[in-house]
């Protein structure tokens, strides 16, 4: 129950359907939701975090009915969205201390704020107003704000967009740390290496529905086997032949080569999550 | 990473605060905003003082000769309070459009208490500004003959006017599209007193303008404050009715609008 997310038949229509009868169950760990722009990721996160009401459907977090008792649900969750939610006129430290006190940390709020400022490399900037912060610093402070407490579910909507590689790695570390301590992480991302690096389970959202759900290996396996790729001396791809990964299919692929291409280099490529994502969302587009 | 992995509290802790505690925290936040926005604070006080000095010393002689400062100060007090309070629209709108409200709404707190913070800070800010304006007015020759009870009545009415404008502009802040737009509405309030008895007696105005000047909400409030401080006609019931009516309408609008402002 603790840290679980349950979504059933969720519908939300703005001008057109954004969420179209979405079902989802997350028990714990790190869950990544992938989807192209406009797939409905942010709308879903907004509904799960009590910020937007759906047209219909059921949502529970840690067993709490989010739609019937949003106040109780807010005790269970914490969220960092794509837009930062900081007070520009206050300093970084004042932001965290205020939010900590609002959460009821009382006297412990200051210590917790200082600890997080250190953790996110913001100690130097702690006493500057947020209006002077760079985009990356704002993002880090916003993440720190979501980690003032240990929620049972932490929602991160594209948490590393706009971060430099070092900050990104740091955020990943923090996410892993929280997950190890028992917080369920619900992550949306457009960068597939992020999903692959962090998530135990990945789902693909497209046009308001989950169109694939599983581990990274399971998703890539759905796209098919390996490809035999012919490259010229400059590494350019000359030709690609699909195989199912068995020796027999490879032998046939090689036999199929024109004699003129035998001087080329040969590589055997496994499908990546990128291929899977492209194939999955593309297929949906064709059938729609 | 080991430090982060330790929970800030044991999982049995119920995170969050109630309305009273949250209001206190938000009042502190809004006061801090006011102090930090030094330019805004200086403008809110300096603008009415300049207005008062200009009317007293530049136009005063032409308008009604000696004693004009006693005539004009009550109107200036009202402009100070009203214009200052209208900045609450910017504060409220900034929270809505720049993201802070999204976090407050996702937290286990009554998010509407953020409005309490802005309102109380606006009261304090504008009472201080009003005191400074009255002080400067006395320094340049304003000589009220009010009894303590009349002073109390005048200050009570100014306070009520601040609440009125704050409530109205809290709604403007909820409804406006951007902090800049929200700020622009405040200027409207700066003009209302010009079409009243604030700077010149109404019977000197063109006939068609006289009813507008007489029956607009600011006029009875200015007349009453002037009557209490330096003598003359008062219209306390009209003043109270206007303030009470506007507060009631604004409160209904805020309560209606606040939950609907979250889809943005």
From TrEMBL, chain A:
Domain ABC transporter: where? 5-232
The answer, when asked if Lipoprotein is one of the entry's keywords, is no
Source organism per UniProt: Actinocatenispora comari
- Assigned keywords, A-Z: Antibiotic resistance, ATP-binding, Nucleotide-binding, Transport
Any one of the GO BP annotations: response to antibiotic
Q: Which SUPFAM superfamilies does UniProt cross-reference here?
A: P-loop containing nucleoside triphosphate hydrolases
Stretch forming the signal peptide: none
Name the record gives this protein: Daunorubicin resistance protein DrrA family ABC transporter ATP-binding protein
* Topological type in the membrane: Peripheral membrane protein
One GO cellular-component annotation of the UniProt record comes to:
plasma membrane
Q: Which cellular compartments is it found in?
A: Cell membrane
**Any one GO molecular function term:** ATP binding
Keyword Transferase in annotation: no
Q: PANTHER family, per this entry? A: ABC TRANSPORTER ATP-BINDING PROTEIN, DOXORUBICIN RESISTANCE ATP-BINDING PROTEIN DRRA
Taxonomic classification: Bacteria, Bacillati, Actinomycetota, Actinomycetes, Micromonosporales
Q: What is its main location?
A: membrane
TrEMBL record, chain B:
Asked if the Swiss-Prot or TrEMBL record annotates the protein with the keyword Nucleus, the reply is no
UniProt xrefs under InterPro entries: ABC2_TM, ABC2_TM_bact-type, ABC_2_transport, Nod_factor_ABC_transporter
One GO CC term of this entry? ATP-binding cassette (ABC) transporter complex
**Gene Ontology molecular function terms on file:** ABC-type transporter activity
Q: Does the keyword Cell membrane apply?
A: yes
Q: GO:BP terms for this protein?
A: response to antibiotic
Q: Would you identify the family this protein belongs to, as annotated?
A: Belongs to the ABC-2 integral membrane protein family.
UniProt protein name: Transport permease protein
Which organism encodes this protein?
Answer: Actinocatenispora comari
Give the lineage: Bacteria, Bacillati, Actinomycetota, Actinomycetes, Micromonosporales
């Amino acid at each position: 129950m603790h840290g679980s997310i349950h979504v059933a038949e969720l519908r939300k229509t703005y001008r057109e359907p954004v969420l179209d009868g979405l079902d989802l169950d997350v028990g714990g760990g790190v869950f990544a939701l992938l989807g192209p722009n406009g797939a409905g990721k942010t709308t879903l996160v907004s509904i799960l975090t009590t910020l937007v009401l759906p047209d219909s459907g059921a949502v529970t977090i840690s067993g709490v009915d989010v739609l019937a008792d949003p106040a109780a649900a807010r005790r269970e969750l914490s969220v960092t969205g794509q837009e930062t939610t900081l007070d520009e006129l206050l300093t970084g430290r004042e932001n965290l201390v205020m939010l900590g006190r609002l959460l009821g940390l009382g006297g412990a709020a200051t210590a917790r704020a200082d600890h997080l400022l250190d953790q996110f490399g913001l100690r130097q900037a702690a006493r500057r107003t947020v209006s002077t912060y760079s985009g990356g610093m704002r993002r880090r402070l916003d993440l720190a704000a979501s980690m003032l407490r240990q929620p049972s579910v932490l929602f991160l909507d594209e948490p590393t967009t706009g971060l430099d590689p070092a900050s990104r790695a740091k955020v990943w570390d923090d996410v892993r740390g929280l997950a190890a301590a028992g917080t369920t992480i619900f992550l949306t991302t457009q960068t597939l290496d992020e999903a692959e690096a962090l998530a135990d389970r990945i789902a693909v959202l497209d046009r308001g529905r989950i169109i694939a759900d599983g581990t990274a290996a399971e998703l890539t396996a759905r796209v098919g086997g390996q490809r035999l790729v012919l490259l010229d001396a400059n590494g350019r791809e000359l030709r690609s032949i699909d195989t199912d990964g068995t020796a027999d299919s490879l032998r046939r692929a090689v036999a199929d080569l024109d004699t003129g291409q035998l001087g080329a280099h040969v590589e055997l490529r496994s499908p990546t999550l990128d291929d899977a994502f492209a194939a999955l969302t593309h297929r949906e587009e064709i059938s729609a | 990473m080991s430090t982060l992995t330790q929970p800030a509290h044991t999982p049995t802790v119920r995170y969050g605060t109630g309305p009273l505690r949250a209001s206190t925290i938000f009042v502190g936040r809004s006061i801090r905003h006011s102090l930090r926005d030094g330019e805004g604070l200086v403008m809110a006080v300096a603008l009415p003082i300049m207005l008062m000095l200009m009317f007293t010393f530049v136009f005063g002689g032409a308008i009604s000769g000696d004693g004009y400062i006693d005539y004009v100060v009550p109107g200036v007090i009202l402009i100070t309070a009203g214009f200052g309070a209208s900045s609450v629209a910017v504060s409220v709108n900034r929270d809505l459009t720049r993201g802070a409200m999204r976090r407050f709404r996702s937290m286990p707190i009554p998010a509407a208490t953020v409005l309490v913070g802005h309102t109380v800070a606006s009261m304090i800010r504008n009472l201080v500004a009003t005191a400074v304006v009255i002080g400067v007015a006395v320094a340049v020759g304003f000589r009220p003959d009010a009894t303590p009870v009349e002073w109390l009545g005048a200050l009570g009415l100014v306070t009520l006017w601040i609440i009125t404008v704050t409530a109205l502009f809290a709604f403007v802040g909820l409804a406006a599209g951007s902090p800049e737009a929200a700020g622009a509405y405040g200027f409207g309030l700066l003009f209302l007193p010009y079409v009243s008895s604030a700077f010149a007696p109404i019977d000197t105005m063109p006939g068609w303008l006289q009813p507008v000047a007489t029956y607009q909400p600011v006029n009875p409030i200015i007349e009453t404050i002037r009557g209490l401080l330096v003598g003359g006609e008062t219209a306390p019931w009209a003043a109270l009715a206007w303030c009470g009516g506007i507060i009631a309408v604004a409160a209904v609008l805020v309560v209606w609008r606040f939950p609907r402002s979250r889809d943005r």
